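In response to reviewer comment 3 from the previous cycle, which asked for concrete evidence that the modeling workflow produces usable outputs, we include below a single protein chain processed end to end. The sequence was submitted unchanged, and the resulting structure tokens are shown without manual editing.
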Amino acid sequence: MTRSPLGHTSRPLPLTIAVVLVGLEALVLTVVALLDLADLSGDQLTMGTTAAVFLLLYAAALALCGYGLLRLVSWARSPVVLTQLIQLGLAWDSRHNPTVAVPLALVAVAVLAAILSPASLAALEPQDED
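The workflow returned the following structure tokens.
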């Protein structure tokens, strides 16, 4: 693994793949939230607004963690792993609808494999200051 002039380890391909997929997840969550807001009706106004705000906050947090991974910040790994495990649970819960369950599961497994690969783990290790 090579080091940049600032002493950081270069980003390995698996970690770059994880960053891209996490960014896409954040984008999809944002789109779903905006679609929820566009579909608000009088009887579902409070619930729809609350769900949309939650999804937007979740998307922002996921994007922030993706940015952390992009910058090789080790704290970003744990929330991303937790998010993917939750996503696997959602995929299992949606197993009766393969058009939802399969993409959820595939992306979650791909992100987990990429972020937990030895190269990614090494890149996210805190660097000792000598």
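The two ends are 18 Å apart (CA to CA). We consider this sufficient to address the reviewer's concern, and the full set will be provided in the supplementary archive.
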